[in-house]
Amino acid sequence: xxxxxxxxxxxxxxxxxxxxxSPLGFGQExxxxxxxxxxxxxxxxxxxxxxxxxxxxxxxxxCVQFGQQCFEGMKAYKVAHKRPALFRPEANFARFARSxxxxxxxxxxPEVFADALSQLVTAFEAxxxxxxxxxxxxxxxxxxxxxxxxxxxxERFCFLLLASPSDAYYxxxxxxxxxxxxxxxxxxGTGAEKVxxxxxxxxxxxxxxxxxxFDQPLWLDAATHSEVExxxxxxxxxxxxxxxxxxxxxxxxLPGVTRDSIIRIADSMDIxxxxxxxxxxxxxxxxxxxxxxELFSCGTAAIICPIxxxxxxxxxxxxxxxxxxxxxHLKKALLDIQEGxxxxxxxxxxxxxxxxxxxxxxx
Length: 363
Ligand SMILES: Cc1ncc(COP(=O)(O)O)c(C=O)c1O
Fold this sequence. Notes:
Blueprint: H1 9-17, E1 33-40, E2 43-44, E3 48-51, H2 62-65, E4 69-71, E5 74-77, E6 85-87, H3 89-102, H4 110-124, E7 135-144, E8 157-166, E9 174-179, H5 196-200, H6 203-211, E10 216-220, E11 228-231, E12 235-240, E13 243-247, H7 257-268, E14 273-276, H8 280-288, E15 292-299, E16 303-311, E17 317-319, H9 325-338, E18 349-351, H10 355-362
Parallel strand pairs: 9-10, 9-16, 13-14
Antiparallel strand pairs: 1-2, 1-3, 1-8, 4-7, 5-6, 5-7, 6-18, 7-8, 10-11, 12-13, 12-15, 15-16, 16-17
The structure holds pyridoxal-5'-phosphate.
């Protein structure tokens, strides 16, 4: 299948009239264009840019009835780059393919995924905000379209690439509430994939946590409710005795691209990284006795966000002695690469406008 670039007159007209709002916030402003490709008769068809808007989905479709959908979160960065750059897009593509396969959906081909990214980012290039921490947040999405009340997979699917010119997710350090009742993911489930159901199942706890004066739940393992896993949209890290500790990938944690990048950056700075089981009781003891000096969360949207407080819904709360010393150091190193200010020793960034280079990276 050869993707055909499309420049529909209405897409061009929409962009001609477009102006960025201020302030942007995160994920609030949606780009006026999107990309769509369809999977019909066992093959991905060529996609195209179309005006952003509601898509026609039957209420009995498997994505609506059974949550047969998955998505990704990635960014195009301008700041010091000559042309907007993507960060490790092959890692997002690989995770998207794993999520799709887990839900019995055909991942888009590398051609479709690369075409979507290069067409959309190139068309929207003039509007990508260029302050540090700002970006074009990109949301690849895959939906099962067939109508059926019988529990079975669709045979027709639709791939969309949506975009949102954005600021960073959180401006300030966050407070996390240890979630002792609900679970985000269980072994053998879909916690390591980026599927909508994981997030739907987290919303009630998030509401309780906000009512209790926190920002995000800190999820524990489903089997014992004793081991730290991650936040609802970010991975979790702790600085203990000047080492970086993070829960090992257990199959129930999303393998974050940011988590992996931070581990490699920390390694290159001779910071010892320990991926292990972190019992919540031990972590709280380490905070009380002073060996844990810092907690932070990390993810594409939030980048690196210090955690200033950890506590229980109706119990003790603990402030961290240092909100962000190592987090600030690592965030600077990561953003310097993502935003094009530093050498990129591992070739993590690639110009989104380089369609053939991008396809080679994804193939
Ligand atoms: C549950 C969850 N954990 C971790 C992350 C961080 O992943 P990444 O660094 O790839 O954005 C995300 C964001 O996608 C997430 O939704």
